[in-house]
Write a structure and sequence with these properties.
It is a single chain. This protein is mostly helical and 166 residues long. It has one domain. Helices cover 69% and strands 2% of the residues. The protein is built from six helices and two strands; from the N terminus they run αββααααα. Strands 1-2 form a two-stranded antiparallel ribbon. The chain is globular, with a radius of gyration of 18 Å. The two termini are 19 Å apart.
């Protein structure tokens, strides 16, 4: 990753987070604790939009790198997740959207063969992808854990991508 891109992402996301927190407090975007919550006071919700802001910033530097369906699926799932933060959405609706977006991603997996031998890979990737989406959704409710987890995962992926030679 280029240092300018990294600094740009950090700057845009930091400024976006500060602005979003001010707007969220002004418009009352708070999650009020329930019996299952990990917080005791009302907490600002919807900050996951900063992930979309980082993605848009990345696309500004690399506009033609990612497949169209991946980008579209990302924005669909981001929009549904944000709406779920603001309003209550049925779990079945969210699951259907997750299945559709994961199908969009699976349709662009780069396999040279489309025979029966790749069906287990598609199936495992599909189940794993929906599991990861739901794990992030769960951790988003445990404030702060999502950011730390994402930093660890992306740091590990960066290391694998840059340092390991196959």
């Amino acid at each position: 990753m280029n240092i300018y891109l990294a600094f740009g992402l950090l700057s845009v996301c930091s400024a976006g987070a500060v602005l979003f927190l001010k707007l969220a407090r002004m418009y009352g975007l708070h999650d009020h604790p329930s019996g299952r919550s990990s917080h005791w006071k009302p907490t600002v919700t919807g900050l996951g939009l900063i992930v979309a802001l980082a993605f848009i910033t990345y696309l500004f530097w690399h506009p033609y790198v990612l497949p169209e369906y991946f980008v579209a699926g990302f924005f669909i799932i981001t929009a549904v997740s944000f709406l779920d933060d603001i309003f209550f959405l049925k779990h079945s609706f969210r699951l259907v959207v997750q299945i559709i977006t994961m199908g969009m991603l699976m349709s662009q997996m780069p396999f040279s063969s489309l025979g029966a031998e790749v069906i287990p890979i598609y199936l495992a990737s599909f189940i794993f992808g929906i599991g990861v989406l739901n794990a992030y959704n769960f951790m988003d409710g445990v404030n702060g854990m999502l950011t730390l987890h994402a930093l660890l995962v992306f740091s590990g992926l960066y290391y694998l991508n840059e340092e390991l030679v196959f």
